[in-house]
Amino acid sequence: FDSGPPRIGPLFADLDPPAGGSVSIRRDVDAVLFAWTNVRNFGSTRSNSFSVKLFRSGTIEFAYGTSVNTAEAVVGISPGAAVSHVSAVEFASALPTGSLEGSIVDVFSATATISETEIARRFFENHPDRFDQVTLFLGFDFDLDGNAYAYEIAVKNDVQGIGLGQGDDGAVFGSHGALRGFLNMGSLDGTDRYPPDPAQVYLGTNSTLSLMGHEFGHQWLAYAAFRDGSASSRAILGRDNAHWSFFFNSGASVMEGNAIQDNGASRGDSRFVTVAATNTYSALDRYLMGLARPGEVPPSFVVQNPVGTTKERASSPQVGVTFGGERTDVTIDSIVAALGPRAPSVFETPKVFRQAFILLTQKGKPATPEQIEKVQRIRDAWVAFFHEQTGGRGWIVTDLQDTAGTTSNRMLFPHFQGDSRSFTGVALANWGQTPADVRFQAYDDSGESLAPSGIINPRVVTIPARAQIAMLAEEIHGLSLDSPRNGWIEAQSSSSSQRRRCRRPHRHEALLHARPVPLLKPDRRCQPQQRQRNTDLQPGG
Fold it and tell me: To pair with 67 at 20 to 30 A between CA atoms, which of 44, 79, 239, 335?
């Protein structure tokens, strides 16, 4: 309703006037009347009668007959996509007496629905537009569309070479550049929902953490093709062409597929066996995410024309399944040949991702302490899981607000294991409102403070408010590039809001400490949005 041109909607619904009824216009001295009489719903014999009258004075009048039979409708006015703000009202109750901004709507539905776009817009009304992902948990029972357990809505993609089209729908979600995806994780509690231990495997081969990794990973994964001979092939893809195929040796990726062992052609129908599933981001995943170089991705394979099993490409991962078939090798070169090189490359991509967590409750039913604690537990475990399963190359930041304090972490510098061809870069961002003093202290491998003549140790560097710095580690202390060293740098801030975790040998940004989860309680029922999304079903779905 609010994403297109300006609209006046007395009954914004899927109607079909040619199927029955009439639409008429009447011009009065002081107004124009538009009337819909017994107009049918699309694909239904149910009809609706209503009108809108536009007065010269600027007054708009909606009127309704005795037959209004649509299951879902939006009533209101909208300036269109140029203004992203939405003011939800209830026309049946007392309306606000002050001015309202943007679209003014009342949403009617015969069934409970969730509007991810409205939730995101409400969130960005009170939080800065600097989050890569917004993640939603529901504090009440609710069946997601299509029997989905959870799903990701793609908001923005400007990455080339991963098999995903480019586009930006951020404005619909209230974001103007930062937001890349919206994760709806569904109901927090209930039968077969998220268990107390986020690491517990409970849904096929999945845990809460692998499900989080799966939905988060849809920002880049899994859409890749590869060059098979002279043609491009998507044989490595399975369900919806957005997950790895059951028969692709995906390295136990959280994006499905399996880790597959090849026992040799002599084994016939039992040549291949699945040995692990959904527990990590594979080397290929990391490349597509911008966390690994092409040369770090080892060769893999996909089994085509499988025999000896009832499994299909779209089947959910399962350990211990044997089958035969034709092995087709898949290399990173064949993927690049089909998709083109990834752009931006690993040397230009972000390594820190900001993610907001929202716990949605029903009106008048605030979240319980147990629910808040459960989301906090999931969030803390997820931050650690993502860092570990990306090989220490990626970080998740879940702070909603800048957090004052002093934290420190250690970083290897300036050459990895004395390799003079590798250099450690330091990239630190100060998201706070005041300048941050960062104290760098260099140590050798024994833990002793470095004290060669001519170096600056310790050194304090000031990062201006809402700014960032990027330096080579040797630049910080005045170390010589001609004398490779192994050692550590400890970085500690006295006034900034971030925790630094820098690793070798590429530059990284800062990491914030986790904070309690917020609650968002929209005033009213919401309308579902028909947007492209990655829907993830329960095993066997």
Answer: 79
Q: Distance between alpha carbon 352 and the CA centroid of its chain, in Å?
A: 13
Residue 209 tokens, joined = 């953490």
Per-residue pLDDT of 498-538, as tens digits, reads 333 333 322 222 222 222 222 232 233 233 333 445 545 43
If one compares 504 and 144, the residue with the highest pLDDT of the two is 144
Place of tokens 């991810």: 116
* Nearest Cα residue to 455 out of 500, 485, 495, 427: 485
Confidence check: pLDDT of 395 > 90: no
Bridge partners of 412, per DSSP, are 488
State how many domains the chain has: 3
For residues 338 and 369, what is the distance between their CA atoms, to the nearest angstrom?
50
* Token pair 């499994």 in the structure block, residue: 311
Give the domain range for residue 425: 410-502
- Location of structure tokens 């899981």: 385
Task: Characterise 478 by phi-psi region: left (phi > 0), alpha (psi -120 to 50), beta (else).
Answer: left
Q: Same domain, yes or no, for 333 and 435?
A: no
Q: Are 250 and 284 in contact (CB under 8 A)?
A: yes
CA 63 to chain centre: 42
Nearest alpha-carbon partner for 350 in 469, 507, 153, 473: 507
Instruction: Report residue 177 as tokens.
Output: 């550049």
In a domain, 402, yes or no: no
> Residue 218 falls within a domain, yes or no?
no
d(CA 92, CA 3): 25
CATH value at residue 455: 2.60.290.11
